[in-house]
């Protein structure tokens, strides 16, 4: 009777260990499969040249954030593998060699390292894109301001191209307007050069 109990207990334990082993192998396989599919995507994203226009950068940032969210959500796969490994180690107890224990312990650690690498890479890439978007929006906003200013200057020039007045007061006023306009142009020259430099650096 005792022998039968022992056989039943061993059978139950064997079955339990078998189930834990299957759970562990399945969890590791799912995590490895997902990492193998995601790592090339992250590498491709992070090697993309950053767009020169806000619209392009916005699109890049949108895609990068979507992948970053996907990576965060699928962190559960790594957690599942770690829990399955701990459960298997607990079920096996001393019924394994030190080498087998090390392998079971090490696998989730390696999965976590691979996961952290792509998570950090995407977080840094999203931060780079955020910075680039802010910079490109700044450049574009400044360019829009300069474009508006140039339109205004052109309109003033058109008015000044009218025949000079023979009335002294009117002529003096026109001359003052020319001087004001010239000073305005001179003051914008530095801004124009700086904007050109910023745009070149950005591209």
Describe this structure in words.
The chain is 89% helix and 0% strand. With 203 residues, it is mainly alpha-helical. Helix 1 packs parallel to helix 4 (98-160), helix 2 (54-73) runs antiparallel to helix 4 (98-160) and helix 4 packs antiparallel against helix 5 (168-202). It contains 5 helices and no strands. The chain is rod-shaped, with a radius of gyration of 34 Å. The protein has helices at 2-46, 54-73, 75-92, 98-160, 168-202.
Structural class comes to mainly alpha
| Rounded average pLDDT | 80
Rg of Cα set: 34 Å
What is the count of β-strands? 0
Helix content range: over 70%
Q: How much beta, percentage-wise?
A: under 5%
Put simply, the count of helices is 5
What are the low-pLDDT stretches, counting only 5+ consecutive residues below 50? none
Distance between the termini: 83 Å
Order of helices and strands: HHHHH
What can be said about the biggest beta sheet? none
Structure at a glance:
This protein has 203 residues and is mostly helical. The chain is built from five helices and no strands.
